[in-house]
Amino acid sequence: MQAVQPDKLRNIVITGHAGCGKTMLSESLALTMGVVNRLGSIDEGTTLSDYSADEIQKKHSLNTSLIHGFWNEQKINIIDTPGLLDFHGDVKSAMRIADTVLITVNASTGVEVGTDAIWEYTREYYKPTMFVLSKLDADRASFNETIQQLKDHFGHLVTPIQFPIEEGLGHHVLIDILLMKQLEFTPDKPGSMTVSDIPDLYLKKAEELHQQLVEAVAETDESLMNKFFEEGNLSEDELRTGIKSALVTRTFFPVFCTSPLHLIGTERLLNVITNICPSPIERGPEHGICTLDDTEKLLQPDPQGPTIAFIFKTMSEPRVGEVSYLRVYSGHLESGHELIDVQTGQLEKPGQVYTMLGQKKIPVDSLLAGDIGMVVKLKDAHTNDTLADKGTSCRISPIIFPDPMLATAIIPVAQGDEEKISTGLHHLHEEDPSFTIEHDAEFNQTILKTLGETHLDTIISRLQAKFNVKVDIAAIKIPYRETIRLAASSQGKYKKQSGGRGQYGDVWVRLEPLPRDTGFEFASEVVGGVVPTRYLPAVEKGLRESILSGVLAGYPVVDLKAVAYDGSHHPVDSSEFAFKIAASMAFKSAFDKAKPFILEPIYALQVYAP
């Protein structure tokens, strides 16, 4: 397969709430482009993008997957993403390297939680964004209600480009107000779109919407605005050019109509992608960071420039090892190309370079600037790493993954599997950086922090499938603390005589409460040498060991002061050991008298209401 020039590339990420039709939209686009000869099925586990065992079992996308095809002599890279919020780490990584975002919205359910979250990601990354209504053939589909919801949530810049003649069963005709034509599709037949004049019954509505479209596009560009004021209209080419520019500047968000399961609207959507969505060149340069002085550097998508590529996804495959999904931002990438991992300085020499069709790898000679693909046999480069020619000191800004929301302790089912768990989680984290692993030293617990229960279940099942280790989940132990309300004193006396030299230590200790977050303080008020100075460090050590495990429930003791103020000693039998034990005895006795109680941790909580 020949390398594709940047101006002939379109990089599209398909996003949306879970179950809104993203995978079937990807599937229908692939079929229409001739990539496959039949439409895959989610229920049967035969789609291009949901090919892993856990995706087939759960009937949900759990990973980013790549599909590509050609349309109008342009290569379209389609990135299908999960819809479940638990896997939005993949959504953010895919959006990071795409040039246009398609937000799929179920016309039966409208704007959902995932839709809002994805919109915020598009704002964060400043990505050109289009909305695609799906499932317009469903019983409860409502075009008008969904458009109104989109405008209410995302503003007046949301503008429909099409409307359906009918919704629900029988839906197969669209009125396109950019073309000002009627588009008719034969259900389930790719390439069946026929274009005709708009029937009189729908002409008035189409003209009104067309006028709104012209005004909306004209407002985004001064020259178009002047042309509109002079002539009262814009040509189709002017509208198309204006929409493309407005997409890049996020001043226009068009809405298109589809029913992917029956291939309705997908042929027109492919024309839109090639004619309106920006190429890497039209999208503009990538903002890189110079590692020498942390200054910003603009990276042009020039195949003749220095090679700079960004790894946005790492996965492990049987018999292959780690594979790295990347986008080339400058220069070109080919097998055996000597590169430097800018983050680590490690020399990397990629093996075969591929472009992807779901799980199918298609070898290519090289990837040019702007293209997306996969490489094998990188030694130590992972997600968020930048690969570049030697001497290039520029890196791509990293993906900022969503913060985990669910924390769970995990324990091995079989004793001795702790190391296998640690190794397995380390490898899984390289594939999915959106979860984190922590070790709680206080309770010796491994804490897994994920984006939700489904995310947690998936990690645990992958741990078993890939590394043959089973774990159970357990409650995270709460880090309670013990302290006192009142001051109290007590004597600790350790005396032992069993022939020969004995043991003798005697100390009086007073415990005093301290303000919160003060910790522990030790002081000595001993006078007259009743407790020799050389034994006071042993007294302090005994007290400090005692606060590690409180009297009430064994939790650490905080916020008190321990004062040694009296005692006695034996000139022969006293020792550091004896005074350490005596101090511990005095502490426990005084603690009981000081009205001890348990402190609960206080956590700061931030609530975001979209």
Descriptive report:
The protein is an alpha+beta fold and 610 residues long. Helix content is 27%, strand content 30%. It contains 14 helices and 34 strands. The strands form eight sheets. It has an eight-stranded antiparallel beta sheet with strand order 18-17-23-14-15-22-19-20. A seven-stranded mixed beta sheet has the order 2-3-1-4-5-11-6, with helices on both faces. It is elongated. The two termini are 45 Å apart. The model has no long low-confidence stretch (mean pLDDT 94).
CATH C-level label of the largest domain: Alpha Beta
The share of residues in helices is: 25-40%
Q: Give a short account of the largest sheet.
A: 8 strands, antiparallel
Low-confidence stretches: none
Quantity of strands, as a count:
34
> What structural category arises from helix and sheet content?
alpha+beta
Tell me the fraction of residues in β-strands, as a range. Answer: 25-35%
| Radius of gyration, CA atoms, in whole angstroms | 33 Å
Number of domains: 4
Mean pLDDT: 94
CATH superfamily of the largest domain, please? Answer: P-loop containing nucleotide triphosphate hydrolases
Strand line-up in the sheet with most strands: 18-17-23-14-15-22-19-20
Distance between the termini: 45 Å
Count of runs of 4 or more consecutive helical residues: 14
CATH level 3 topology of the largest domain: Rossmann fold
> What's the shape?
elongated
At CATH's second level, what is the architecture of the largest domain?
Answer: 3-Layer(aba) Sandwich
